[in-house]
Amino acid sequence: MKISNRQHGYSILELSLVLFLLALASFIALPRLGAVLVGGRAEGALRTLTETIHYARSTAAVGAQDLFLHLDLREGKYWLSRDPSLISEPEYTEDLAEIHRLPAGVKFKEVTTLGRGRVAEGRVTVRFFPDGTVETADLHIEDRDSREFTLSIHPLTGSVHVEEKYIVQKGLG
To answer: In this predicted model, what pLDDT tens digit does every residue of 65-88 receive, in sequence order?
Structure first.
């Protein structure tokens, strides 16, 4: 049996080198990770808003009644309701009353609808009809890096087209 005199473990030099390499990797990667997270917030908000629009269209058609997407531009929140009033707040007994909020650093820049035109402050609604059609609308969203996104809602199909720029559908602007 052979016995080694070498001790098990790492030297201070080896540990220092590993810590230095970890710090260097963090220094390089963290700014990029931050940009990805902020960008991811905008994309996540667009995805959630698109899902809400699809849900609203199908719910209005299945329920054979009007449904309204309320957008509070100042507060960065939105919800679905059967009440068309711009001053309404969702009632928690209503099955559609979940309030969604845009993430930090993401905001509604403005909303353009066929009925109200361009709205840059306050509240606006987008109407979903019982026959499956939707009020023509463009929702403009901006993130903290001033990137602009447009969600255009097609009136006949209810499909949502997302562009990473500010656009207005023909007939709205």
So the answer is: 999 999 999 999 999 988 888 777
